[in-house]
Write a structure and sequence with these properties.
The complex is a heterodimer of chains A (983) and B (163).
Chain A lengths: L1 H21 L3 H5 L1 H12 L1 H5 L5 E7 L4 E6 L2 H24 L7 H20 L3 H19 L6 H32 L4 H6 L5 H17 L8 H4 L5 H9 L3 H15 L3 H23 L4 H20 L4 H32 L10 H4 L1 H15 L5 H13 L8 H29 L18 H16 L4 H12 L18 H18 L1 H6 L10 H23 L4 H23 L12 H19 L3 H22 L2 H22 L12 H24 L13 H9 L4 H9 L1 H23 L60 H24 L7 H27 L4 H21 L9 E6 L3 E6 L1 H34 L22
Antiparallel strand pairs in A: 1-2, 3-4
Chain B lengths: L6 H18 L4 H23 L19 H32 L8 H12 L13 H7 L8 H7 L6
Classes of the chains: A mainly alpha (983), B mainly alpha (163).
């Protein structure tokens, strides 16, 4: 079976290319796939009859005890025959039906073949989960097929309707499957049905499964998607209605009925919806003018009948249901294909326009008559055998005389009458010569090719052929019907004398013909059915309601205001965290009153600086105060026993200060006025409450620790596996290296973001050619006032050339922008800082330091050079593309992390490399050094991006816009008198 | 396992967090950046304080194991510090860009979102089932497969007044 599915898959994959190359003839080849399935089933007939159908199992998810497998029992065998046989016929039909150059034919061929494959997989699956997968595959493929003409609104609507309705049911079904499988302890259908679980929860699960079957099989109230789906190409309709898709729901009912048909909920659902659908859709079919719509409602009606029969608990009814299933597949496919012939040759399916076609296309009309004969149950066609068996079973006194049974029997008789009526209406509408019509239509008819008439003819004749051997059918199908729980086995027969059933059939025909003759009256008759109950209407209303709700919800929560969003987030934090804390925690019994004078002093400093920073109106003041809180934090780290943190914090704080100043020189000195006092109070309130909340959290958390911290293991592991004694560093580069990697990605993204915000395109050129610098000598920043110009007059006049100096960039600055002290200091400390940073990088494994700290030190060294020598100096100091630095860094850490796998370890595991070199002695290297080097590079990259963007590039903007750095200028202006009061 | 918290640091955390949130809710981006830094400091100290009691530097060989402070929160906070730096840089770049474009660095409300709100309030939304609803007969009338004969040929063959 798996092989057959793979054939379908391969055929579907190859179809688009093949159709593009060889055109529609490819359909003939594709038909071989479903045909092979049918042949395979036929070849296994004997084995299936003996109850030894082929079984295959493949391991799928062993941990969930899930196998991937196929069974071929009687029901599956029967379904494979139907799905494969009708599929092959439909594909053959396609090879002539579509115009050679029609749009999307390759895709259509692929999807139709895949659809057949999915359906075959569905009916042979051995477990429920696997069946569900195929079930949803048929949903998706049918969506693609119904929406084949994707440029038509009606097609798209119909496809959307089909997928929404059937997926809704599918989801309910999945829920049911999971509950059922959980209750039964297995998903294997065979085992599950041998010992069906029971209980309320199982009833719920079964009801959910039925929702899936009902939506798929288009029973009311979900029937509306199927008539809409007639916008699909006619061969698709034929397959969809006859063998695939809607038959999946019937298959599910038949599959589960032996185990669950006695469940009262099951019986209620199946009986009510089955009867209702049978009658309601039969009436609708009578009212249609489009041939396809007549057939579509006819299918819905027949599906109701099928659900009634195969969903019943009685063996005899089940047997007739299976017979009807086969008969319906044959005649419905036959009739749809005939409609396709009519449509293709005349260009219409409207029975008000078609006139006198029967005389022009006698062969087609005959084929249609074969199909209709089977549909209405005329002796000696398959439909007759099936319906006769159903009548026999329903009138069997052994079944009791419950009210439900009577309702079903009456519904079945009335529904059969309607079937006769709309069957005749179909035949008459398509082919009859109508008196009231004005002239014949169409006038000219081209004779349909035999490849178009042949396939429906085969199906029509098959409907006659199988009926001639009812006993064979009984032998083949009864093994499954006998698995049903109640009643005596039923029989399939052609004629058993003038039984009540036969007489009923005659009555059905008489009344049916009468209804057909008066069908105009029927059409005008109003159904006593409230308009608001229409499933289609409810569907549309629901969709519109969902759209509106979505729009209103979006409008309500997506306000577009950042403070609003933040406020909501904080509010949530306060309410939930605070609520939980008030409800479930208490304050600790004791606090640690260390009261170190240093700690208290630092704390007071931070508190004061924070309050002042929050109140500050001048940007620079706020920044400096923030810096104080930062340095204070570093001191607290130190006092708490975290020297690495303290070191990092100090460096970061320094860099932050520089970055702020670099940007602030371009921004106004004061924050803009915010006159809304009310919102300010709200912000203060939110801030205070959040602060109190976080403080309270810090107060209560320590006493709720229940486990030993995992870091108790760190010291030993750091030395043994990480090869270092500075645990924090080893944690960063080894124990929690994945964490650090994630963090470096964030740094990389932030650096790229900064650069792209400022440069807008590219990261800027790297002017490495120092010879050009001389041309700019003494020009940068020359627009600033130069109070000491007279003192600068030099006898030589010309500035010295660039090549002879180390701090070359400096000469590009205007004299008033240069600082002798800074330049000299830079020359003195730059190299020292670089060496120190490298020391920190390598020492970090065993002492405070590491890649982060080292990178920051290097960054500050670059800052110093930039401040002293301007942007040309920065380029000269680091003539690198920042992106390359960042990328190399990430590669060194992450990429070389993979190297550990080469040595047989896990990703990012540290490996000790030891060499013994003569003279020098033993060298021991831990691979995590490379990781740390990567960190180092990424931090340098970040620093470079910050400096180039917020430093150099903003310099350039300033120069090009005329007013240069306002770092000094406005800061000297007096503060406006209206301080905080103006807000 | 449980340990007593340090009230001095808890006060510091509370004040830093309050100041940070207050500034974060501002519209001026440079104030938001300062708020992020303050909040970052608050959270970093918070992490350290609730992570374990204070101790000596967690370096094997220098500090006896019993006096060591917990290295795990420290490793986490270390990365957090550097990320705060990157975020500050990014916010400032945004502030500068905003200043470049609008002559101020304030976060404006998203006008597009406001427009959605207005639209939702005054109009009914289009049906997502795909445009106006066609009835089944009309849909049937316009449904035609691409078969060999083209529609035009049918019209020539049929009576014109049907059109």
């Amino acid at each position: 079976m798996l092989l057959i599915l793979l054939v379908h898959l391969a055929a579907a994959l190859a179809a688009p290319k093949a159709v593009a190359k060889w055109g529609r003839r490819v359909f003939l080849v594709l038909a071989a796939a479903p045909a092979a399935a049918m042949v395979w089933a036929l070849a296994n007939t004997r084995a299936v009859l003996d109850g030894e159908g082929p079984v295959s199992r493949y391991q799928w998810v062993p941990k969930l005890d899930l196998d991937f497998g196929f069974n071929l029992d009687t029901l599956s065998w029967f379904m494979v025959l139907i799905v494969g046989g009708v599929g092959a016929v439909v594909l053959v039909y396609c090879s002539r039906y579509f115009a050679p150059r029609s749009s999307g034919l390759g895709r259509f061929a692929a999807v139709l073949t895949a659809f057949a494959g999915a359906m075959l997989g569905l009916v042979t699956s051995s477990n429920l989960i696997q069946m569900y997968v195929f079930w949803e595959l048929t949903t998706v493929f049918s969506y693609l097929l119904i929406g084949h003409y994707s440029d038509r609104g009606s097609s798209r609507r119909a496809a959307m309707k089909a997928i929404l309705v059937t997926t809704l049911g599918g989801l309910a079904m999945l829920g049911g499957i999971l509950v059922l499988g959980n209750e039964a302890g297995t998903y294997d259908i065979r085992i599950l049905l041998q010992n069906p679980p029971d209980g309320t929860i199982v009833t719920v699960a079964v009801a959910l499964l039925l929702v899936g079957a009902v939506t798929k099989s288009a029973l009311i109230p979900f029937h509306f998607w199927l008539p809409s789906a007639m916008t699909a190409p006619t061969p698709v309709s034929a397959y969809l209605h006859a063998a695939a898709m809607v038959k999946a729901g019937i298959y599910l009912l038949a599959r589960l009925a032996p185990g669950f048909a006695l469940d009262p909920v099951w019986q209620a659902i199946v009986t009510v919806l089955g009867c209702g659908t049978f009658l309601f859709a039969g009436l609708q079919a009578l009212k249609q003018y489009d041939l396809k719509l007549i057939l579509a409602y006819g299918t819905v009606s027949q599906l109701g009948a099928l659900a009634l029969l195969v969903g019943s608990p009685y063996k005899s009814l089940a047997l007739s249901g299976l017979a009807l299933l086969g008969a319906h597949a044959l005649f419905k496919a036959c009739l749809f294909l005939t409609v396709g012939v009519v449509d293709a040759t005349t260009g219409t399916r409207d029975i008000r326009r078609l006139n006198g076609l029967g005389r022009k296309m006698p062969l087609t009309a005959t084929v249609a008559a074969l199909g209709v004969a089977s549909m209405v149950g005329l002796i000696p066609f398959a439909g007759y055998v099936a319906k006769e068996a159903a009548f026999e079973a329903l009138f069997d006194p052994d079944l009791g005389t419950s009210a439900i049974k009577n309702v079903v029997a009456v519904s079945f008789v009335v529904g059969s009458m309607m079937t006769v009526a709309y069957g005749l209406r179909f035949l008459w509408g398509a082919f009859a010569t109508k008196k009231e019509a004005k002239g014949e239509y169409p006038i000219v008819v081209t004779a349909p090719p035999w490849l178009l008439v042949g396939p429906p003819a085969i199906l029509g004749l098959a409907g006659l052929g199988v009926a001639l051997a009812p006993a064979l059918g009984e032998t083949l199908l009864s093994p499954y019907a006998d698995a049903y729980p109640l009643g005596e086995p039923g029989h399939l027969a052609m004629f058993t004398g003038f039984t009540p059933a036969f007489i009923t059939t005659i009555v059905v025909f008489v009344v049916g013909i009468a209804v057909f003759w008066s069908s105009e009256t029927v059409i005008r008759a109003r159904v006593p059915w409230p308009a608001s109950w229409d499933g289609d209407l409810i569907y549309r209303h629901t969709l519109r309601r969902i759209d509106q709700t979505a729009a209103h919800l979006t409008a309500a929560i997506q306000r577009g205001s950042l403070p609003f969003y933040l406020g909501i987030i904080l509010f949530t934090v306060i309410v939930f965290t605070g609520g939980a804390m008030l409800a479930g925690t208490s304050l600790p019994d004791a606090v640690r009153l260390r009261l170190l004078p240093s700690e208290v002093a630092v704390g007071a400093l931070i508190v004061t600086a924070t309050i002042l920073a929050a109140r500050a109106r001048r940007r620079l003041k706020a920044v400096v105060l923030t810096g104080i809180t930062g340095y204070g934090t570093a001191l607290i780290f130190l006092l708490y026993g975290a020297p690495d943190l303290a070191l990092t914090q100090v460096l970061v704080e320094t860099v932050t200060l520089v970055v702020f100043v670099l940007v602030l020189r371009r921004l106004p000195v004061y924050f803009s006025n915010r006159p809304l006092a009310a919102s300010r109070w709200l912000r203060i309130a939110l801030g205070v409450v959040t602060g109190v909340l976080i403080a309270a959290l810090a107060m209560v958390i320590p006493q709720y620790r229940v486990h030993e911290p995992i870091s108790r293991l760190f010291p030993q592991e750091a030395v043994a596996y990480g090869g270092g004694s500075n645990i924090v560093n080893v944690a960063l580069v080894d124990i929690r290296a994945w964490d650090t990697m994630g963090e470096m990605s964030v740094l990389l993204a932030a650096a790229t973001g900064i650069a792209s915000l400022i440069f807008l395109s590219g990261r800027g050129r790297v002017p490495t050619d120092l010879s050009t610098i001389g041309e700019k000598a003494g020009t940068l920043g020359a627009t600033d006032p130069d109070p000491m110009q007279s003192l600068r007059a030099r006898p030589g006049g010309e500035p010295r050339s660039a090549s002879s100096q180390w701090l070359v960039g400096g000469i590009t600055l205007a004299p008033q922008r240069r600082s002798l002290i800074l330049e000299v200091a830079t020359r003195l400390i730059y190299h020292t800082m670089i060496v120190f940073s490298i020391y920190l990088l390598f020492a970090g494994h065993n002492a405070p330091g590491g890649g982060f700290v080292a990178g920051l030190v290097t960054g500050i060294a670059l800052v110093v050079r930039y401040l002293a020598g301007g942007r040309y100096e920065l380029s000269a100091a680091a003539p690198l593309q920042t992106g390359v630095v960042l990328g190399t860094g990430l590669f060194l850490s992450a990429g070389l992390g993979l190297a550990a796998m080469i040595f047989g370890g896990e990703v990012l595991q540290s490996v000790f490399l030891e060499w013994s070199i003569p003279v020098i002695g033993d060298i021991k290297l831990v691979t995590s050094v490379f990781f740390d080097f990567g960190v180092y590079l990424v931090v340098i990259g970040l620093m470079l991006d910050i400096l180039k963007s917020l430093g150099s590039e903003i310099d350039r903007h300033g120069e090009s816009s005329g007013h240069d750095s306002d770092l000094v200028g406005p800061a000297l202006e007096p503060a406006p008198p209206t301080r905080e009061s103006s807000r | 396992m449980t340990f007593a918290p340090d009230p001095v640091l808890i006060i510091v955390i509370g004040v830093l967090a309050a100041g940070g949130v207050y500034l974060l809710l501002e519209r001026s981006l440079s104030r938001v950046a300062i708020g992020v830094i303050l909040l970052g400091n608050a959270v970093n100290i918070f992490f350290l304080v609730v992570g374990g009691p204070p101790g000596e530097a967690p370096i094997v060989g220098k500090t006896p194991l019993s006096e060591m402070s917990d290295p795990l929160p420290q490793a986490m906070v270390l990365t957090a510090i550097v990320i705060t730096l990157a975020m500050t840089g990014f916010l400032l770049a945004m502030a500068y860009r905003s200043w470049q474009l609008n002559e101020h660095d304030e976060v404006q409300d998203d006008l597009e979102d406001r427009r959605i709100a207005r639209l939702a309030a005054i109009t009914t939304v289009a049906d997502s089932s795909g445009g106006e609803v066609a009835n089944l007969d009309e849909a049937a009338a316009e449904t035609r497969d691409e078969t060999e004969l083209s529609v035009e040929e049918h019209w020539l063959a049929g009576d014109e007044d049907e059109l």
